Fold non-specific serine/threonine protein kinase.
Amino acid sequence: MGNCFGSSARVDATLSTASEASKFPSKTSNSSPHSNISIPPYSGKSSAESLPTPRSEAEILSSPNVKAFSFNELKNATRNFRPDSLLGEGGFGYVFKGWIDEHTLSAAKPGSGLVIAVKKLKPEGFQGHKEWLTEVNYLGQLHHPNLVKLIGYCFEGDNRLLVYEFMPKGSLENHLFRRGPQPLSWATRMKVAIGAARGLSFLHEAEEQVIYRDFKASNILLDGEFNAKLSDFGLAKAGPTGDRTHVSTQVVGTHGYAAPEYVATVDWAKPYMGDKRRLFRIMDIKLEGQYPQKAAFAAATIASQCLNQDPKLRPRMAEVLAKLEELQAPKGATRHSKADNQVDPVLMSPLRHHSPMNVTPLASPLPANRKAASRLR
């Protein structure tokens, strides 16, 4: 989505939704309903420590920004990984809900302290030690309101776990594909798009640029106010630096997983993106026509530009972000459904939604089986 570097190259409690870059998440609080979708301005509270490459495993795991948990600590935090603490499951392993003290980060009683999502990898899962370490490497150094917070990790014997802030609204994919009467409103969708773009722009424009390589709906997580945060950096790669103006990447993910009709979606949809009269044919029918046609066409135009076969003709993510922000409706002009601020029964169910593409854990920063990602994501 866009050119990375320009022409040159399950849920009864919520985490605080304040968008600020901090070492650890803030105290748990309940989200309050609001009538208008507001897109918080970029506060500039982000940071990217020097990302020297390569870094040794010892250097990565000794980062002062993440806590090294013991396996017993996480067993206590998740009530011994009990089934009723399970948030999701995929080819990588399992995701459990847990609680820790906000000051000491030690295990806390359920319903108190900070809510966390604990990703426990299967030894034979798709995500191996290398990707696990890559995630610790990047999220241990990158801090931005639109990147999920990594609180810590556990590395004991064959155990590989990651501890994240809890994202109460789950993934964007669940909201787009779930069965339910209330879809995300246009205003909410634009808010999510802008948040995701901010996260990508931060990665692409940083002094030490980062190629995300896994940008998809299941990796866009939503907090209690529908602020989007990018998750899963297991496939991330350092961008060009100095005289190294080009970085070769490859298509990554689980080959042959998606049905052919989904792989070819972009191709058949392209002609509609540039036709105002036919654009409605590719708009989500769940919106029931409740969207501003002019803004929808403008958004489709941006998406079309990002799909240009020539990387040099794709806009930079900073440009995409600027264009999306221009499309933001005046405050109060567009109301969103009350359902946008409620926990959907489907999302609360332990029965996860099966999308046409994959299974996504709920309210967690973790995707299920990987799909192919474009080389510059």
In short: The CA atoms of residues 262 and 348 lie 27 Å apart. Confidence is low (pLDDT under 50) at residues 1-39, 253-257, 332-364, 366-377. The chain has ten helices and twelve strands.
